[in-house]
Every structure is written in C-alpha cells, then in structure tokens.
Amino acid sequence: MQFYGGMPLPVRVIAPSRLAALRERAGLSKAELARRVGVSTRMVFFYEKGRHTPTPQRLQKMAAALHCDVEELTGVRRGEEGLVDLRFAAGLTLDQAVELLRRTRVGRDLCLSAPRLSALEQGRPVLGRNWRDRDVVGRLPTALAKIYGVPVRMVVDAWMRTRPDESAPVHPRRQRQRGSSDSAEAAWRSLNERQQVYLGEILRDERMTETEMWMRRTHHLPVPRPAEWRKLPLALHAPADVVGYTRLQERLRRNGVHDPGAGATVHALARRGLLVTSTDVVHHAEAGEVTRVRVEMTRRGRAAARAGLGERAEQQPDTPLLSEWLWGVMARVAEAGPDGLERDALSGRAPFYLGVGYKNRSAGRPSRGFIDEVPVIADDGSHVVGYRWKLTPVGLRHAVEYLDEYRRRYPQVDTTGVAALAGEHS
C-alpha cells in the first residue's frame, strides 16, 4: 500500500475521458474549472490525464461545477457503489471520516484509524481489537450511514460489494410483536355491520385500481401518481338515471348498503380517521359539469379493513431486508434461471428500487443494484437482440444470505429459484 505523510493514498479515481467530455459539455475551459474547484490549471490537466486523483471535497466541487453527479465522473453506476464511493460522495477524506467515527462508541471499540478504514474500503483484512467480533463490527454500518448521510441498507450493500467473501455485516433483528394489529382489530370491532361492509368494499376497490395501474405500466401507458389514483370515485351529484353509478356504488348496491351521495356511513368512517373524503368537478357527457365525491383510505383504515378481513398486517422490513413486494420480484428473477427474465416483465417501479443504474425518485437514493439488464447478443455476435433481467453478484449474495429470514417473514413467496441458486453457490 502506498502512503503519503503516513496516510493511505486516495483510492477513488475519476475516469479522465469522462472528465474531459463533461468539461467540454459544460463549456468550461481548464482554467475556469480549476478556478471553481480551487486548484491550478496544471492540476486539472493532470486529472484529465489520469495522473492525479481529486480529494473528496474537490470531487464534489468538480461535480457541482460540471452540473453532474459524482458517479458520472467516476463511472460507477447507481447501485454499484462500494464503501469508498459512499465516503467520497459524502465529501470526506479518510482523516475526516475517522475523526467522526472515533466519536462513536463502535469507532472507539474498533480503535478505528485511517489505515484500518482504508483496508476496510479496499476489501483487505482489517486487524485489531474487536475486528473479529461480529456483534461489534455489525454496529459499524449504522455509524457509517450516519456520517455519510445515507440509509444503513446502502452501507450494507456497499460493504457486500467491497468485501464479497465475507458474511453480511448486519442481520435483521427478530421482529417484536407490536400493538398496531391489536389496535386495528379494535378499530374494526368498533364499527357497525354497515360501516364494516363499506370499509371492506373500499379496500377491495383500491386493490382493483392498483391492479389497473400496474396493467397500464405494463402496456407503457401514462399512470397518475398514487396520491391521485388512491382517491376513489364514490358518487356523482346528479340523477343516477343520467350519470349511472360508480364502480364503488355498484359494489355497495350488491351488498344492499348503498347510500345516495357521500352517505352518513362514509362520514362516520371519516370522523374515525379511517377515510378521507374530497370533492372535485368533472364533465359528464350528458349531465355537464357535476360534483364528484371521492374517498381515500388512511393507513389506519387500511389496517382496520385488513384486520377485519382476516389478513395479516403488512410487515415493515428491517434493515437491510426488502419489502415483500420487492422480495417477490427478486424471487421471480431468480426463478427465471440463467436465461434471465424478460425485460418487459418488470415494467413497473421495481427497477427503480432494484435495478443497476436506476434512482427511485428525483433526487432520491440510488436503487440497491440487485438486478441488471443484461444484453442478449445475436448468435452471430453482430448486434444486441434484447435485454433480460438477471441478479447481480450482490443481489445473489443478498438473496442467499437472508433466504431463511425471508422465508420466515414472507412464507407465501415462492423461493424455489433462490434456493436453487443458493445450492449452486454454497
């Protein structure tokens, strides 16, 4: 290992050709970029030739000057970050990171130093007191996440990429029984029979709408934001023989509990905090402009309806686990085997949470990088004929590492494909 002044050299490098291209795209000369970054023009020349590597702070200033993300300079795609990438993205040198970590209990317990942190980032063995104690080392990702300003799961994923031959540093705690299910059941029992039917049918209509939104995404059609489509049409303030009934009204009519308009039952549910009602104005071909009443379930209302229908409560995944939905996606990709899953099979939001190169929302965190679009080359090798989803190495490691815990939490998800992969890599 190389040192300067007794400290490890920076190990994060930029792609020189990318820097030159981004500088030209931004319309900046070497001298202007140097002025904005706070270095000499000669140093920018060295950066573009690959002879020097900027410090984390200078890398941040360079990205700001070029109006790009740090990963555009380094060539690291979203969902492929290692531990050193997280530190550089936070603009911290080894010294600064160690200084912050030494203020924490785990930093002191591990006697953290710049050489030790550098070894951790480079995937080399870290020697010293408590470094063989999994319980102590398992507290380090939380401390790193705090100083880097990222979720713990990002640190765990980066750790597993950086140190592929080690077990995951963090294992989820056994979930404790919470009182939320009891309160949901109590809320359901407090309703009369008519109110229970209303709440149950609204939940079913919401699920049907969610399925419709998924189908629209599958066919590449525009989809409104959840905050909009979750407001379900209940009634139109116009004669039913002119405007007919909404789907939700038809559900209630089949159950023999339909009220005209918004109805006293809906207002009672809203007063209990189980629903939110709102109105807007829509155009009807025959009735013209009419007022529409919409209802939206609250978290409490959704939990009460699930409890009343005998469904188990939704489990919030502990770090670093996935939600049941995303774990199901991973299982589907694994089930597809070596050939991978058809690209269009994951046309919803899943790639933005799991796919390499994706970000789950504007200015949001990068996805976990557990799946990637792999090109399928024509038999003659002349061109790409399509893309298929496959698990990345860290995605496979995550699935194998936490398979037993996922099976315990989400027993209804078919993990046959994951188990087969786990057997191959055991």
From TrEMBL:
Residues 19-73 form the HTH cro/C1-type domain. Pfam families: HTH_3 (PF01381). It comes from the Bacteria. Residues 165-186 are annotated as: Disordered. This is HTH cro/C1-type domain-containing protein. It comes from Streptomyces glomeratus. The lineage of its organism: Bacteria, Bacillati, Actinomycetota, Actinomycetes, Kitasatosporales.
